[in-house]
Amino acid sequence: MSSPEPTLPAEYDPHLHQVYIITPTRRRYWLHVLLFLATVFTTLVMGARLQFNFINNLPPLRPSEDFFPVAWALRNGHLLLGIPFSVTLLAILLAHELGHFLYCLRYRVYATLPFFIPFPSLIGTFGAFIRIKSPIPTRRALFDIAVAGPIAGFVLAVPAAIAGLVLSRHSAVLVSDGDSMQFGYPLIFYVLHALLPWPATGAMTLSISDLYLHPIALAAWVGMLATGLNLLPGGQLDGGHIVYAVAPQAHRAVTRALILLLIPMGIFFWGGWLMWSFFLLLMGRWARHPQVSLYPPLDTKRRVLAAFALLMLVLTLIPAPFAGGSALEAWEQYTHQR
């Protein structure tokens, strides 16, 4: 239940609007193109490794393999193997950022083009982001800009997950051999796995943890993880903006509650939640949510979309993205080795 709408002050005049004079900076198109091409390359390299391992029934990611197998990928046409993973992942990330960007254009909010972040390991990227460089005029504009990104990414990630799950197969690899990474799965993967009309391969009788995920499914997994992280209801994440648009007075309290919740999640599920808790704490201390006009309030349609955003969070959030990654397990391993 959302907090009640604040009472309109007597001096409020719906015909008066704040006017901001913004001098747009010159767009550095070359930087956006360079970062995007670099991210295409890094995701192709890592996607090639994932596809090669899938074809040869090897674990998807192993610490013993090259940190960034660029020399291997450039030999014998291996790089082309990474196309399915790279295209799927970049399409999901691009859809998310364009969702934000296009709604910024709609409300005449100045924003940069997406910055992609290449990373030469694991999945080949740290994601993408846009920078908003002018004030957002109203709560409705803030809500639309914030929710458009996760919805756009989710809409692409779902069919990618379906296609990837259909292409996946029973794992004949002993994934507990100590030299492979095991993944946790979002709720949406379990739902799709249960609903898909599997062929007569017996896949439906298998637990999703017994499937060897196709690289397209892994790209969808990354997209779901990114969506869930962005929808965390705190700070200046997309979820935090949505909370502020729905109930401005509750934003600070919800952020603090999220910070406290992430601490035990980091201890028992995934140590990365401790980093996110610290990140949100710094965000609240040094970068408070910018003020946005309270009027007009959100209408019924947007409140329904807010409920859908909460549903997306439930479906995409992965409490333990990687098996054995909790702070408690890391501490036990450390004390055992001493």
TrEMBL record:
This is Site-2 protease family protein. It is a multi-pass membrane protein. The chain crosses the membrane at residues 29-52, 73-95, 107-130, 142-167, 187-206, 218-237, 257-283, 304-324. One of its GO terms (biological process) is proteolysis. Its main location: membrane. Belongs to the peptidase M50B family. Signal peptide: none annotated. It is found in: Membrane. One of its GO terms (molecular function) is peptidase activity. Residues 85-253 form the Peptidase M50 domain. It comes from Candidatus Korobacter versatilis. Pfam families: Peptidase_M50 (PF02163). GO terms for cellular component: membrane. Keywords: Hydrolase, Membrane, Protease, Transit peptide, Transmembrane, Transmembrane helix. It comes from the Bacteria. Its cofactor is Zn(2+). CDD domains: S2P-M50_like_2.
